Amino acid sequence: MLLDETYVVFDLETTGLYADKGDSIIEIGAVKMCRGKIIDSFDVLVNPGIKVSDEIISITGITNEMLEGKGNEEDTVKNFINWVGDLPMVAHNAKFDISFINSAYRKYNLGVLNNTLIDTLGLSRYLESNERYHNLATLVIRYNIDWDEEKHHRANYDAEGTALIFYKMLNKLKNNNINTMEDLKRYRTIILKYNNKKALDN
What we know:
202 residues, alpha/beta
């Protein structure tokens, strides 16, 4: 059942918006969540090998000094994927985050990411189709999640907030008689990738 599974909820901070135009990852934040509880975490800064712009520093609070001496993108992504294993991956506006993971896979010849990928943005639009806004800052209010806006746009904090929102969304799905990944995979704006080798409908 969806509510009983373990998920990796993750978020990235990057040097810019476009993975296919030379931007890269500067932070990976993620949590493993099981039955509404965070059971493990992954939070690593990444040295992109270039100076981070003042705009990105302003948004994320991540300075060039903070990135000095940190690991590179290739090693960090490898460590992250090893930590994830074959668990389903969840992100808010997942198309953005996964574009950078997929870009790293291509750049460093890591193969193909096969994990099931769930987008909480698409899930919010499905569950609350009458609502206009579905950004993270809105959803923490809508789902009554404790939130410090000043910590927003740090990957680990956003991942934790997304995880807590996601679990409440799963309870709403149950009320809509969507109980398994097989049920959910029909909604292509919610599940962006489905790994048929991983049977999640226990």
